[in-house]
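Re: beginner question about structure tokens

> Can someone show what the tokenized structure looks like for a real chain? I only ever see the sequence side.

Sure, here's an example I had lying around. Input first:
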Amino acid sequence: MRLIALHIDRYLMLRDLTMRFDRNGRLNMGSYALDFLVGLNGSGKSTLLRALAQIITDLHANRPTLFNYRLEYELQAGGQRLRVQVIRQQPALTMTVYKLDNGQPLLENGPVDAAYLPERVIVYTTGGL
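And the corresponding structure tokens:
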């Protein structure tokens, strides 16, 4: 899984936050890309990571997340590179999946399909969480 973007409407201290992870100059070694969150204490770094973990956990458990978001990522499934967008706009939860090579949709605004979810997300923080 490679994160592309995460937008959170309202979660704890986060309000109308969009984080892009597909910018130029990122550490990118083909199948491996690395991003860092850097900021002052209390600026929301751990809260953002907690929100991402909550979203992925809720998707895998097939339960609604209590806040609205838009999550976009790339992954490899069935030998294909895919771009996936999951949108939670209460009460709806939809998934759109496109092939990266030709942009052809595999699923448009449909229900979440576990086949297109990341197997795992690793989050590391040096804070007290």
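Each token stands for a local structural state, so reading them left to right follows the chain. The helical segments are 45-61.
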